[in-house]
Design brief:
This protein is α/β, with parallel strands linked by helices. The protein folds into 2 domains: 235 residues, Rossmann fold, CATH 3.40.50; 95 residues, 2-Layer Sandwich (Alpha-Beta Plaits), CATH 3.30.70.260. Helices cover 38% and strands 31% of the residues. Strands 6-7-8-3-9-10 form a 6-stranded mixed beta sheet, sandwiched between helices. The longest helix is centred in the middle third of the chain and has 18 residues. The relative contact order is 0.12. It binds adenosine-5'-triphosphate. Adenosine-5'-triphosphate binds next to strand 1, strand 2 and helix 1. One of its GO terms (biological process) is amino acid transport. Keywords: Amino-acid transport, ATP-binding, Cell membrane, Membrane, Nucleotide-binding, Translocase, Transport. This is Methionine import ATP-binding protein MetN 2.
Length: 342
């Protein structure tokens, strides 16, 4: 279990003191995939450096596996830090070493014998799917393969926690998905706790169990991914969610709908889990004598199930529209009237 308690991290800059992390409280469970999302400057990297003991908080406690990282020093801290590994956006590989030699590097530092090292490297190569590439140099690898080397190297000494610092931000969408699948596989196979920081909601949606949203050093929202998607509270969270559902580009479409359909209501529906598979819209049309036109739709898979948004224009007698909205509420479809078309 990892806990950040009342963490404040201040830096002294030439423009005066700067609070990079401002009273953050987080608890991350063992074997959880926990995402921290925020725009540049939100304090994510600082938080990750506090989690691996590279930085000490100005105030508060960092607890990793029952050890107070913020209060231990020297050998004890070095040993504790070995249980926390990290992968990076730009991989941080040693360019003059082969794939196998890169993966062996932390084992050499840990003092493992050559024979044991070779066996462990082979296990790790298989785990990350790099068979046949052992003797290649990083410059001969694709971005995804480089990150696989980074992951194998990070796992070499059997850490309990893997920190991922924008680990897929330099990769194309398909490679990103492959690396995210690998992280899920490792999480499930090894029970490793994974904490990742990112500015991409897609990463959170695809693999995280829970998410914390950071803005100006503070955690402004936190919860199960599906819940946060369904009911984002903070304006910044709404922006992240709409990035993913594509609803941020729909203002022009709404305007168009308003012109073409001067009556009725424009409503955003949020479906979660099994609801995404049910014929809710056809029930609406049959039962309430309303017409429904789809303006925009999107469905995404999260770790806890599917999440869909649908923007529809509902028209008909106002009493029927009212009843239709009540029905949606009853069947647990969240609704938000975006604008009145009249
Ligand atoms: N060593 C440092 N000295 C002074 N200020 C720092 C230091 N490290 C970070 N900061 C400042 O702290 C704030 C948070 O930075 P941080 O790098 O943690 O944010 P971030 O969310 O990771 O953004 P990015 O993705 O751009 O790195 C920023 O205003 C940054 O300039």
């Amino acid at each position: 279990m990892i806990a950040l308690k009342n963490i404040i991290k201040k830096y002294t800059t030439k423009n005066g003191p700067l609070t990079a992390v401002d009273n953050v409280n987080l608890t991350i469970n063992q074997s959880e995939i926990f995402g921290i999302i925020g725009y540049s400057g939100a304090g994510k990297s600082t938080l990750i450096r506090l989690l691996n003991g590279l930085e000490q908080p100005t105030e508060g406690e960092v607890i990793v596996n029952d050890l107070k990282f913020s209060h231990i020093k020297g050998k004890e801290l070095r040993e504790a830090r070995q249980k926390v590994s990290m992968i990076f956006q730009h991989f941080n590989l040693l360019w003059s070493r082969t794939v196998a030699e890169n993966i062996a590097f932390p084992l050499e530092i840990a003092g493992m014998s050559k024979v044991e090292r070779e066996q462990r490297v082979q296990e790790l190569i298989t785990l990350v799917g790099l068979e046949g590439r052992e003797q290649a140099y990083p410059s001969q690898l694709s971005g995804g393969q480089k990150q696989r080397v980074g992951i194998a190297r990070a796992l070499a000494n059997n850490p309990q926690v893997l920190l991922c610092d924008e680990a897929t931000s330099a990769l194309d969408p398909e490679t990103t998905d492959n690396i995210l699948d690998l992280l899920v596989d490792i999480n499930e196979r090894l029970g490793l706790t994974i904490i990742l920081i990112t500015h991409e909601m897609h990463v959170i949606q695809k693999i995280c169990h829970r998410v914390a949203v950071m803005e100006q050093g503070r955690v402004v929202e936190m919860g199960d991914v599906l819940e946060v998607f369904q009911k984002p509270q903070a304006p910044i969270t709404k922006r992240f969610v709409s990035q993913l559902t594509g609803t941020e580009d729909t203002n022009a479409i709404f305007q168009n709908v308003k012109e073409h359909y001067p009556t009725g209501k424009l409503v955003k529906l949020v479906f979660v889990g099994e609801r995404t598979e049910e014929p809710v819209i056809s029930q609406l049309v049959k039962q309430f004598d309303v017409s429904v036109s789809v303006v925009h739709g999107n469905i995404s898979q999260t770790k806890s199930g599917p999440y869909g948004t649908l923007v529809v224009h509902i028209d008909g007698a106002s009493e029927n529209i009212k009843k239709a909205l009540q029905f949606l509420h009853q069947v647990d479809v969240q609704t938000e009237v975006i604008s009145y078309a009249n």
